[in-house]
Amino acid sequence: MKRILVVTGVIVFSIYISGCGKKQAGLEETSEPMSMETLSTMDTTTPVAAETKTPTPIPEAKPEVTLSQSAQTSKLEPLPPAGPYKPSANEIQTALNNAGFYTGSIDGKIGPATKKAAEEFQKAKGLQVDGKVGPKTWAALSQYLNPQPVATKSGKKR
Length: 158
Description:
Helix 4 crosses helix 5 (112-125). The protein starts with a helix and ends in a 17-residue tail after the last helix. The protein has helices spanning 2-30, 36-40, 69-73, 89-99, 112-125, 135-141. The chain is mainly α. The chain has a domain at 89-144: Orthogonal Bundle (Muramoyl-pentapeptide Carboxypeptidase, domain 1). The longest helix has 29 residues, at 2-30.
């Protein structure tokens, strides 16, 4: 009696294992990547087993898009960064120099001389004096970045 149970158990177990192998093969078959062409021809209106399904071609819609001539020939420009503009150290030093508050070399390094000049500028403009060029300070200072030429007595611009 024990032999019959053992033999029956082995047979059931082997049938179970062989069935799982078929399921795995079926899963691997369905998990292959599909191309856009295959996806566009699939009919998703009725659920049918994959083996019996025949793809139905879907007519391609061709949208009409017209662009103005300027849009066709223009190049894309990057968007400005979000948030307030953050000036470079060179821009800060140049603007402070043009405003008459910074006399050091424009080296792109914010050191004690640049901070002192920023504090003096802030004090002169009635801003919070902290030596940092934040959005409010830069709003006042940026006008000195590219100063307009000053007319001399002879009427010529220098």
